[in-house]
Design a protein that fits this description.
CATH superfamily of the largest domain: Photosystem II 12 kDa extrinsic protein
Strand content: 5-15%
CATH topology of the largest domain: DNA polymerase, domain 1
Number of domains: 3
Strand order of the largest sheet: 2-1-3
Number of helices: 6
Largest sheet: 3 strands, mixed
Radius of gyration: 38 Å
CATH class of the largest domain: Mainly Alpha
Distance between the termini: 133 Å
């Protein structure tokens, strides 16, 4: 009787042991699977982060503050609003507009001048240059009013007011180049208007 009971116990004990082993194997397999899933999710997350940051091992995506906008018009192949990196020059604006058309006066504007955000850059044609020189309807900096000054490319009411204020405070302009001392008038803008303005008796 004792032997029979012991045999039953041994049989059930063996089954229990096998059951525990099976549960242990299943739990181990699940843990490994979870670990693999977590590793894959972590890898995908890092890949997505690198893509969003544009790193590729080389840095982050430039912010909007790293760009400026200029309006390019006149004798270029693709005029319009252009987005350029900060620190760009007139040459970069010209390239963004796909270069000169055949009729362009390529020497009219200083291509090495820096551009500023919100600037309008106009490239004239050779014909426009010739007509301008033959008519001599240039604007006299010492006689022009605000309306006449705002007819110049890149000169709005604020810059026109600055020119008039400078003229009053300095008893007029002695040369066209003196425009560069007016707040808001930088080299690239001056190159656009220098052939459109004059100072009486200066030529």
């Amino acid at each position: 009787m004792g032997i029979h009971n012991g045999s039953i116990f041994s049989r059930f004990g063996l089954r229990s042991l096998l059951g525990l082993c099976l549960v242990s194997l299943l739990l181990s397999a699940c843990a490994e699977q979870d670990e693999i899933v977590l590793e894959r999710a972590h890898s995908q997350q890092n890949t997505q982060k690198d893509t969003e940051e544009g790193t590729g091992g080389s840095g982050t995506v430039p912010e909007e503050e790293d760009y400026l906008y200029v309006h390019v018009c006149g004798a270029v192949k693709a005029p319009g609003l252009k987005k350029l990196p900060v620190g760009s020059r007139v040459w970069d604006a010209l390239e963004a507009a796909e270069g000169f058309i055949e009729e362009a006066d390529e020497d009219a504007i200083n291509l090495a001048a820096f551009v500023q955000d919100g600037e309008k850059i106009r490239f004239p044609t050779k014909e426009e240059r010739i007509l301008q020189e033959s008519r001599d309807d240039r604007i006299d900096l010492n006689a022009a009013d605000e309306e006449a000054l705002t007819s110049l490319p890149g000169i709005g009411s604020a810059k026109a007011a600055a020119i008039l204020k400078y003229r009053r405070e300095h008893n007029g302009f002695s040369s066209k180049e003196e425009l560069l001392q007016v707040p808001g008038i930088h080299q690239a803008l001056f190159e656009q208007i220098r052939e459109l303005v004059k100072v009486k008796d200066e030529g």
